[in-house]
Amino acid sequence: MKVLVAGAHGNVASHVLDSLRKRGHEVTGGVRKQDQFDHVRARGAEPVMLDLTRPEQFDAALSGQEAVIFAAGSGGQAVDSVDRDGAIALADAAEASGVSRFVMLSSMSADTPENGPEKLQDYLKAKKEADAHLRKTGLEATIVRPGSLSDEAPTGKIETGERLHNLERSITRADVAETLAEVLETPSTIGKTFEMLQGDTPIAQAVKAL
């Protein structure tokens, strides 16, 4: 499958590039700076300019693509322009360009930003609005909402659910990336939104059970 990964220089997205390439996909990594191209090429993907605040770049980045994985994040610096507006605009552009599949990396508590940590509430609100917009499009969409992220070694095992409550657990970035790749290849996840944390179920089994 021809897949565009948005935010390809990011920590989770870098793992996504690796996971997709290992599965044999033809991967394009969208980044906002030309000096990030080598990072994408080093992971076996083709780089393309994709600044989420510049919609004029979207058509070229989406040309020929069959699917999009949105793994971009502003790091709290531009939640409205990137995490909300950028995600919304890319989803609309993907639909207009004929892309059928869209996998959104979101966040736990996105449905209830007011219940999240105060410092994350603006980010969670942005993700909530982007997720809600994606559901209204005609895209074959899946929304993946991990909890707190870590850089520990992946375990390959997760817990998923519509709403998880053990917030003391985290999830490794590599396991999130592998889950995004698995979701992409699992049509039964289309139309679904789920939360995820580290758990005891192998990723493929957990995704298949959704």
TrEMBL record:
Pfam family, one: NAD_binding_10
Ranges for domain NAD(P)-binding: 7-187
SUPFAM superfamilies in the record: NAD(P)-binding Rossmann-fold domains
Name used for this protein in its record: SDR family oxidoreductase
InterPro entries: NAD(P)-bd_dom, NAD(P)-bd_dom_sf
